[in-house]
């Protein structure tokens, strides 16, 4: 194990040197003969789909919406999807500090978040161990097929059913256009190598967009948070984390066929596969045969779009997702589904949307492994859900829009569930929109919740087939304000309550049972400001607050101490012209519980720099954790076990990208 002592003065010198370079590099010598690239600022005129299931301008959605564009992803050269989403104000991504570690997202402080690709669910029926999340974001490897990501914060069960308690993340893929092939290669700290390929084109109404990528990393380094966990260390020392090698690869394909102006057919396929070490924390970097993790995903979908030129487009879709994960055992699952949506413009005031969803989730195998045993937990268990939804976008006047909706889900285990909603949008003037939304929400029990059944060394862990769904409501109030052509402001506050929350009840002998034993309530606030400082300089500032309380077994509400971002801060300052795009972004959290985390706050700064050498070729540099900060995003336990999952120390990525 190799360690080094950090120099405080050296770290500060690094930080300020890189920040200064990011803001001032090459500015005097750049030619401004061409128009500068547009800044990646949020636009209220931008059309989004996810919030209302039909194209709607962002300002009129009556929801807290954020959009990540393909330009932001390309210029950011993010390591993974979790890093992309963590750059969005108010989004919490919980993860451990090594490549391939599980990543779960929280919106409005809730990990019951629905993640979709092009509007189809990719959540896994067994759920993610240790959370209420339905998908591990680290299993989605490819980023270069993403057109944009739409993030809707707040309850959305009336449109999307289970999982959409905290909100929805919809990853929208790229459609092939011009004939173009792009190669991307980068190297970085700790033996990191990234290889990426994409090709696209269109001919005679047929288009394609295909990507392939591979990432290798020999190991990870971390900065010590808790010296008690690493013998002979001091806080801030840098160590090589044993058992942290990683390798991942992905392949995606989107094929589109245009039938006529109103109809088209799309086929999507995604393959992701990775393998890496899975340390049990810095105190237990490996544990016998349980030190490796594998993740395999194969997803496909076939979609028929119709009425594309009408006010309410429709579609019919069939899809299937398959996952095979190996860690602690073998976990194979499959999801199959069908979705249909249509609608009508009724006069000038009513836009009616209706649809049908059917989905079957199966766990094909759930077997626990260790050095001595292979224990079959459960297998060949499934649940099905059939749902019908109806929504009316009612334009009352030029200023008022009311959007009521209702969805009915019938689940094979718990029966029927009705979730209504109503959203109200008021356009105070041409630059100000105020909204209110009320949404009933629910989260269906996962297959692990229902059927988990294992007896290991005399300790029993059991699910319950008679569990009820978690249910509640979310209320949001917000404003979207365009102060000028250069400045936009969004603000949102929310409150949510959940009953029948599912948790695992433990006795003194560590036996556990899944039960509807908890209540939860949350409240929070977000503020975003985007400002163009000048022709070439831009800035973003964001603040978010989340307060969560749990009431288990009616023992009274207690503040949740695992929250890794009670107060969140985002700052970005950038420079862009025809050659350069450089930005420094800071991410911070305060108010962390010292019972669960070593420090109550942290600041982390990152640098992204891109230089366009020719119209076809560019080079880029990313430096992560500029100040070499020791921090954590996951609680590793209480007392002396805090700090078991520190995030990576300072590292860099240098790459070149070429298109032809």
TrEMBL record:
Segment forming the signal sequence: 1-33
Domain TonB-dependent receptor plug: 59-168
Subcellular location: Cell outer membrane
Main location: membrane
Entry keywords, A to Z: Cell outer membrane, Membrane, Receptor, Signal, TonB box, Transmembrane, Transmembrane beta strand, Transport
PROSITE patterns reported for this sequence: TONB_DEPENDENT_REC_3
TonB-dependent receptor-like beta-barrel domain residues: 218-626
Membrane topology: Multi-pass membrane protein
Homology family: Belongs to the TonB-dependent receptor family.
Protein's UniProt name: Vitamin B12 transporter BtuB
The organism's taxonomic lineage, starting at the top: Bacteria, Bacillati, Bacillota, Negativicutes, Selenomonadales
């Amino acid at each position: 194990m190799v360690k080094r002592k950090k120099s405080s003065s050296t770290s500060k010198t690094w930080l300020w040197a890189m920040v200064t370079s990011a803001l001032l590099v090459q500015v005097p010598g750049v030619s401004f003969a061409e128009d500068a690239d547009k800044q990646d600022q949020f636009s209220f005129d931008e059309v989004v789909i996810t919030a209302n299931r039909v194209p709607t301008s962002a300002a009129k959605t009556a929801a807290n919406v954020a959009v990540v564009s393909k330009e932001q992803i390309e210029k950011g050269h993010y390591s993974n999807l979790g890093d992309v989403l963590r750059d969005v104000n108010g989004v919490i991504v919980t993860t451990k500090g090594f490549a391939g570690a599980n990543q779960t997202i929280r919106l409005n402080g809730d990990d019951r978040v629905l993640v979709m690709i092009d509007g189809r669910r990719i959540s896994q029926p067994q759920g993610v161990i240790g959370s209420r999340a339905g998908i591990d974001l680290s299993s989605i490897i490819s980023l270069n097929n993403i057109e944009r990501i739409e993030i809707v914060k707040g309850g959305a069960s009336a449109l999307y059913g289970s999982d959409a308690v905290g909100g929805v993340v919809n990853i929208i893929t790229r459609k092939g256009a011009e004939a173009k092939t792009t190669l991307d290669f980068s190297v970085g700290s700790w033996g990191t190598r990234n290889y990426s390929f994409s090709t696209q084109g269109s001919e005679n109404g047929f288009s394609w967009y295909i990507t392939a990528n591979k990432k290798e990393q020999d190991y990870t380094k971390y900065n010590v948070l808790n010296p008690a966990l690493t013998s002979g260390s001091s806080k801030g020392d840098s160590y090589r984390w044993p058992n942290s090698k990683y390798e991942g690869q992905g392949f995606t394909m989107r094929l589109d066929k245009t039938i006529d102006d109103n109809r088209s057919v799309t086929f999507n396929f995604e393959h992701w596969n990775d393998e890496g070490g899975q340390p049990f924390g810095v105190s237990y970097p490996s544990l016998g045969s349980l030190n490796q993790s594998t993740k395999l995903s194969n997803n496909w979908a076939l979609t028929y779009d119709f009425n594309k030129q009408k006010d309410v487009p429709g579609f019919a879709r069939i899809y299937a997702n398959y996952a095979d994960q190996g860690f602690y055992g073998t976990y194979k699952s499959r999801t199959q589904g069908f979705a249909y949506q249509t609608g009508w413009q009724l006069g000038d005031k009513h836009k009616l949307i209706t649809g049908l969803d059917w989905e079957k989730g199966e766990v094909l195998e759930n077997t626990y492994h260790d050095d001595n045993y292979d224990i079959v937990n459960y297998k060949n268990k499934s649940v099905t859900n059939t749902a019908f939804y109806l929504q009316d976008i009612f334009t009352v006047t030029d200023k008022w829009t009311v959007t009521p909706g209702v969805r009915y889900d019938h689940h094979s285990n718990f029966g029927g569930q009705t979730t209504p909603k109503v959203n109200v949008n008021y356009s105070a003037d041409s630059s100000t929109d105020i909204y209110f939304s009320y949404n009933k929400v629910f989260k269906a029990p996962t297959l692990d919740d229902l059927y988990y059944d294992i007896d290991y060394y005399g300790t029993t862990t059991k699910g319950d087939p008679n569990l009820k769904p978690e249910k509640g409501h979310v209320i949001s109030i917000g404003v979207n304000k365009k102060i000028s052509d250069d400045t936009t402001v969004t603000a949102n506050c929310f409150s949510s309550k959940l009953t029948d929350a599912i948790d695992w009840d433990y006795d003194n002998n560590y036996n556990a049972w899944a039960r509807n034993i908890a209540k939860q309530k949350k409240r929070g606030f977000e503020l975003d400001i985007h400002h163009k400082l000048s022709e070439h300089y831009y800035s973003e500032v964001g603040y978010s607050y989340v307060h969560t309380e749990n009431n288990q077994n009616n023992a009274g509400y207690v503040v949740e101490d695992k929250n890794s971002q009670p107060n969140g801060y985002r700052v970005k300052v950038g420079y862009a012209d025809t050659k350069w795009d450089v930005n420094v972004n800071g991410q911070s959290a305060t108010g962390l519980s010292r019972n669960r985390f070593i420090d109550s706050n942290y600041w982390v700064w990152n640098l992204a720099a891109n230089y366009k050498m020719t119209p076809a070729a560019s080079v880029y540099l990313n430096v992560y954790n500029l100040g070499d900060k020791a921090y954590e995003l996951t609680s590793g336990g209480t007392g002396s076990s805090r700090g078991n999952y520190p995030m990576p120390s300072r590292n860099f990525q240098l790459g070149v990208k070429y298109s032809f």
